[in-house]
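Form 7-S
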Amino acid sequence: MPAITWEAPYCAEGNNCFRLGTDDDGNGYIAVNGQEERYLTDSLEALRTLITDIKAGKADHLL
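Output:
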């Protein structure tokens, strides 16, 4: 398992809490709080693009 530095959990109004993390190799991670051993990973650039797109409303159709 890589050495991941996790940020504080992001929780939205009683919904699941998610955590974002990074490692020294330039990878980004997303996990459900409390289940950090089951993460999704990609490059930091891909994580940055995902967050930017979500903020821009490109995932609103999933709600």
